[in-house]
Prior knowledge:
The longest helix has 13 residues. It is built from 7 helices and 46 strands. The N terminus is likely disordered. The site of one 2-acetamido-2-deoxy-beta-D-glucopyranose has 7 residues, from helix 6. This is Exo-beta-1,3-glucanase-like protein.
Amino acid sequence: MFPFIYIVFLLSPCALALRARPCRDLPLTHSVAAAPYEVPTSASVAATPYEVPTSASVAGTPYEVPTSIPQPGTGSCAPYWLENIKHQGVASFNTDTNSTSLALGRNQTYQVFRNVKEYGAAGDGRTDDTAAIQKAISDGGRCAPGSTCQSTTKTPAVVYFPQGTYMISSSIIDYYCTQIIGNPNCLPTILAAANFSMTGGRLGLIDGSPYQNTSKTGFGPTNTFFRQIRNLIFDMTRIPANVLVPAIHWPTAQTTSLQNLVFNMSAANGTQHEGIFVEEGSGGFMADLVFHGGNNGFNVGNQQFTTRNLTFINCVTAINQLWSWGWTYKSVTIVGCQVGLNISAGGPSALKVGSITLLDSSITNTSVGILTARTSNSEPAGAGSVYLENVKLDNVEIAVAGLNGTVLPGSRDAMTIQAWADGHRYISDGPIGPVNIRGDISPTNRSATLLENPDDPYSKYLERSKPQYGDVAQDKFLSARTLGAKGDGHTDDTHALNAAILQAQRDGKILFVDAGFYLVNSTIYIPPGSKIVGEALASVILSNGSFFNDMNNPQPVVQVALGGERGSVEWSDMFVSTKGQQAGAVLIEWNLGTYEGTSGMWDVHTRIGGFAGSDLQTEQCEKTPDIVITPSNLVQKCIAAYISVHVTKWATGLYMENVWLWTADHDLDDSRNNNTQITIYAGRGLLIESLAGRMWLYGTAVEHHVKYEYQFVDTHNIFMGQIQTETAYYQPNPDATIPFPENATLSDPLFTLSNTMNGLNGTNGTRTNTAVGWGLRILRSSNITAYGVGLYSFFDNYSTNCSAVGSGASCQTRMLSIEGYANSHSINLYNLNTVGATQMVTRDGVDLASNVDNNSTFVDTINVFRI
Ligand SMILES: *[C@@H]1O[C@H](CO)[C@@H](O)[C@H](O)[C@H]1NC(C)=O
Ligand SMILES: *[C@@H]1O[C@H](CO)[C@@H](O)[C@H](O)[C@H]1NC(C)=O
Ligand SMILES: *[C@@H]1O[C@H](CO)[C@@H](O)[C@H](O)[C@H]1NC(C)=O
Ligand SMILES: *[C@@H]1O[C@H](CO)[C@@H](O)[C@H](O)[C@H]1NC(C)=O
Ligand SMILES: *[C@@H]1O[C@H](CO)[C@@H](O)[C@H](O)[C@H]1NC(C)=O
Ligand SMILES: *[C@@H]1O[C@H](CO)[C@@H](O)[C@H](O)[C@H]1NC(C)=O
Ligand SMILES: *[C@@H]1O[C@H](CO)[C@@H](O)[C@H](O)[C@H]1NC(C)=O
Ligand SMILES: *[C@@H]1O[C@H](CO)[C@@H](O)[C@H](O)[C@H]1NC(C)=O
Ligand SMILES: *[C@@H]1O[C@H](CO)[C@@H](O)[C@H](O)[C@H]1NC(C)=O
Ligand SMILES: *[C@@H]1O[C@H](CO)[C@@H](O)[C@H](O)[C@H]1NC(C)=O
Ligand SMILES: *[C@@H]1O[C@H](CO)[C@@H](O)[C@H](O)[C@H]1NC(C)=O
């Protein structure tokens, strides 16, 4: 039954306070576990670590660049609101103070917004702007790669490029927590000078984390959070074609994104240019990228990534996959390349690519679509897994090539691969598995409500990029700070922020929430019709006080609509967090029913603990693995949230993109600069109970909650493109039954029943209940389709012995539970990767897939799971 009764509330029970605070940091531990790649020296990068297909298979035809692809960056340019809006963002917990700024009534001089022209960049295409751009990034004592700073949330910045062509002669180094943004109305160009040089370990026009003389990148790749680059053209055409240079070096983790970028590279014979180079990390999201020319558009390896709307024109190889556990490619257009995706790294004896998912894509005028090294007896057995769905080919000689020849023929004419899979299948209406198969498979029975065109069964799944409001005039924006919210991390902003949100919504305007920590002591209510955008990944709503601290009476920090309200909301680039003990805080409660179009959260994250101002740092919550934790000695003040995001029965039509729900496992602002691990208790991750369903989850990740990371209950029609989880590092000390008692209303998992337990099998010393949280739990739900799933358990009570190579994946017994099977159907999981779990899928207590049967590249990989 659907709850359609609409109860009218006159301005809701919303009050509260917030705080502004920014970013980041993570412990290196899980990344260390990963790292199946060589540290590239410039020499090894140059020496392409993969086999090139035989000359026969690569005809090397020089194809025409289609003229239909628009080339941004020319013509007149409309002003962009972000450039001209009053810049009032602050870093609330930055201690940079001086008497001048105090006299101005501000406690800090730290500047969040930086326009590169105000730092002296000319943007005239002739002046060397390297130093000016670098100054705009580094000014204000920020967190530089390779310094003692591993991470901090105290120095966020927006580095803004107005219209112009900015010539650089050496690499620009990106700092921690930086949004690099160009005017979207006329993409500015970063032009590499003919004498462009990369020295001192730097790679690329923009280096996200340069190599240090330790042979490591400046920031730990799996801890490199909170950064974006948007709306730029990278012009490398003046660099000689034979010089190996990437436009962007991007070894990053969650809450990072690249959006709306164009890469112009040499297409000359022998070109060594490449677009994006990623060799490590735990990403991440990219969308709306166009590559012209070059040797590799992408030259990438990472634990997981979600990438969509990528166009590769005239590259030698569009995508060279160095390694992966899972990587999702959606809406990729490849035209005139020699190879589309090369996933043969490592060769058949040591495959490096765990899995690749490619859907809603096209490959045209290209010799080889996909080059794989997987064979019937390649190693590891589960690796090199490929899932293709709705991939159109036109004039592709070989659709899938092996190192010795054709695996799947192509065609001179147009053809569509409806679905094709190579790897280990578990299909309930066949032999359960694993069945090692390469070949066609019936495509997903796509739910029409999830498609771009619901009337066309062959339509792509809908996708919708983060709105940047380039076409919206300045006077259509309101500022939360101008409207009276302090965002200083200590004033209660509940009333001011609620009033600002309401005013913007009533006036049909967009609310800009200037960088800062907005402390709130009661609920912030976002009504239908709201459009809200934050700044610098440093606009943080911070819950505080007793209202959110009753475990028996949970309360939303941010409530998007009341149950029964309809309409749409757009919300981007913000964080919701808690301050100190908040045992009843539901960080985001999404009730909104969007029946026309979609509502969205883009780069809206929850971050629980581990940052300055949270009172949930090393000092309060440092890990204690040597103490047996019981209900009586558990550190109560580190109980920090009840649920991260609750999508309720009322909600429908929600689109989420690049959303990370993170309970901190380490302190981002640790005074020791040592990524100190902390134990924070947050009850539940992402709970979706929507009765009407219709949700898109592109590039979402949920980590370190007590009972589960993702839980779906009585819902349906959910699209997921690479989801990722990590079990809490401290579990099972304590186990998942404490400190939050079961709430049956929320369909909490019952860890006391042996058939749904997922701890170690049996007792461990004095620990009798070894239950740990689920990565993914699906109850009575249908049409749940995930294109890429990574469920990881690296730790047992902070020890990684249980996930180390050869450990037998003993961090937890089970990881993924499907319950109420009689009412669960059409569940499709493509390229399911687990770490540290003995059983990969459990259905009503019956284990269906053992990790030992699916050994892959550090992870265990199932290519297709369907029931
Ligand atoms: C103090 O802050 C002001 C701006 O608020 C800045 O212009 C000035 O350079 C700062 N002075 C010092 C000594 O840092
Ligand atoms: C500046 O700091 C003082 C002392 O910490 C505090 O009382 C005051 O409210 C702060 N002012 C602003 C504008 O943040
Ligand atoms: C590209 O260069 C290689 C080696 O320099 C040469 O053998 C080949 O003929 C060239 N191809 C074209 C299309 O010019
Ligand atoms: C894909 O990216 C291109 C280039 O950024 C952009 O013009 C286009 O609108 C994007 N398509 C979608 C569906 O977002
Ligand atoms: C390719 O063929 C050669 C010769 O038949 C054989 O030794 C080799 O194992 C094959 N390699 C692959 C990846 O199939
Ligand atoms: C599941 O998807 C199929 C295929 O589009 C559709 O026929 C069916 O109605 C969907 N089920 C629900 C519960 O929406
Ligand atoms: C919340 O803050 C407001 C000030 O905005 C204050 O008047 C109120 O008493 C506070 N409420 C609680 C429960 O702390
Ligand atoms: C259980 O969750 C529901 C739904 O959020 C809530 O209304 C109720 O107060 C919770 N019960 C307890 C005992 O915490
Ligand atoms: C930093 O962390 C490492 C690993 O946990 C530890 O061995 C070392 O003692 C720590 N250093 C400091 C200064 O705390
Ligand atoms: C746990 O151990 C028992 C006894 O050794 C065994 O029968 C059972 O299958 C194990 N359960 C799991 C989930 O591994
Ligand atoms: C068992 O408990 C001990 C002590 O808490 C811990 O060191 C160990 O990692 C646990 N796990 C296993 C599998 O023994």
